[in-house]
Each structure stands twice: as structure tokens, then as C-alpha cells.
Amino acid sequence: MEIEEMILNYTSQQNDLRKHISLENNFSADQIKLVAGADIAYWNENNKEYGVCCIQVIDFSSKKLVEQVEYINEITIPYISGFLAFRELPLIIEAAKKLKINLDLYMFDGNGYLHSRHMGIATHASFFLEKPTIGVAKTYYKIENTDFIMPENRAGAYTDIVIDGVVYGRALRSRKDVKPIFVSCGNEIDLDTATKITMHFIEKDSRLPIPTRYADLATHHARKLRRDIMINKRD
């Protein structure tokens, strides 16, 4: 399939899904017991591209890791700006199938509603995982040339990212004297709740919430381990 045809096909799929996005909670706060963080890392091996998805399940109260899974496979879908979900979703779905725990919510290292079609990975994946989702990005994804307003330099300060009168997400100062992170609804959750859950998982040694931070660390470890194995095989 040519890139132009893929873009048309992917746009059509996302436009169909976006009709079903809910920016309201489908749960009550006391129902959140287990929260998963998901992230993906890529590398090249024998002239092929591979990816690993790591999911880390965290207990909401104790903030302890209770389950972790990973899934590795070759990546055959090219990177197309704005359509990252199509590259990552197959890995995410297969990794999620390995989970033994029935968790309550997913947090993604990436965007959700903060996307040109409101279909970042956190939102797109929610329709397949059938769970509420939150997007937490480390860097800002600029839409329609709109910059974010820097929040005050205090923990919990935020500014809404508004484009054409629509709130797409938030620039959140998770800790004092650190760069902001960018929180957006995935699906079946409102922005205030997404922000509160994100802040709940912030600890003093990182600006990232525990679920996505652990997932990020796990993907880097898995990628390094795979590379070390291949190097040893060549030696």
C-alpha cells in the first residue's frame, strides 16, 4: 500500500473512531485500584526494525509494581506523522493479552486527545483495550502552530492547551523546577481526573508518573538486553 493510500485509510479509520470518544469518567474515583503504564521502544536488527511494548501494572494505593509484561515483534508499518498508533497498536494489543490482572486504567507515554484528530495513541488504543486511558507526553506535540503557555513554577500548576476554543490537553508542572509534561484525556475520562491521577503518581525523583516512567525504563532495558544478545551471538 502506498503512503498516500495509507494516510487516506488511516484518516478514515480515526475519523470513525473519534465519533465515539468520551471525555467523561465511566468510573468513580474509588474504583481505581490498578493502573498500567505502557510504552514502546524501537531498534534495528539485521536490516529489520523491531519494537518492544512494555506494560507495567501499578497498585494505585501502594504505588508498587504488581505485574509486568512485554511483547517484541518486527515492525512493518512505516512511521507517518500523526498516525503513530497504527505502528504501535499491534504491539500494545499483544502485550496486553499477556496480562493476568484485570486492571482499571491505562496511562500511555504519548498523547491522547492532544492530537490533530484527537486520536493519539492513548485514545486510539482505548477502543481496543476497552479501558479508560490517559496520555502523558514528555514533549509537546504542536497542533495548528499553537504553542502552550508555560505553567507557574510549582508542583501541580497547569495551563490548558486551547485550539480554536477546544481544550486539547494540559501543560502540567508535575514538580517545581522541572519541564512540564503534557496530559490529555485518552478516552472515558475527564481532564481534571486525568490530571489528578497523573499527579498522584509523581514522586520526588522524577517529573513523570510512576506507571509511564516504569514502562519507559522497562522498554529501554528490554531493547538493551536484545541488542546485547545479538552482539554476543555475532561474537
Structure, explained:
The protein has helices at residues 3-18, 84-97, 121-129, 191-200, 210-234, and strands at residues 34-45, 48-59, 65-74, 105-108, 133-137, 157-163, 166-173, 181-187. It is globular, with a radius of gyration of 18 Å. The protein is of the alpha+beta class and 235 residues long. It has a single domain (3-234), classed as archaeoglobus fulgidus dsm 4304 fold, CATH 3.30.2170. α2 (84-97) runs parallel beside α3. The chain has an eight-stranded mixed β-sheet with strand order 3-2-1-4-5-8-7-6, with helices on both faces.
What is the subunit arrangement here? single chain
What series of H and E elements makes up the topology? HEEEHEHEEEEHH
**Helix content, binned percent:** 25-40%
**What's the alpha carbon Rg, rounded to whole Å?**
18 Å
Span of the ends, CA to CA: 38 Å
Task: From the structure above, extract its key features.
235 residues, alpha+beta, archaeoglobus fulgidus dsm 4304 fold
Structure, briefly:
This protein is an alpha+beta fold and 235 residues long. It has helices at 3-18, 84-97, 121-129, 191-200, 210-234, and strands at 34-45, 48-59, 65-74, 105-108, 133-137, 157-163, 166-173, 181-187. Strands 3-2-1-4-5-8-7-6 form an 8-stranded mixed beta sheet, sandwiched between helices.
Note the topology.
Blueprint: H1 3-18, E1 34-45, E2 48-59, E3 65-74, H2 84-97, E4 105-108, H3 121-129, E5 133-137, E6 157-163, E7 166-173, E8 181-187, H4 191-200, H5 210-234
Parallel strand pairs: 1-4, 4-5
Antiparallel strand pairs: 1-2, 2-3, 5-8, 6-7, 7-8
Helix pairs in contact: 2-3
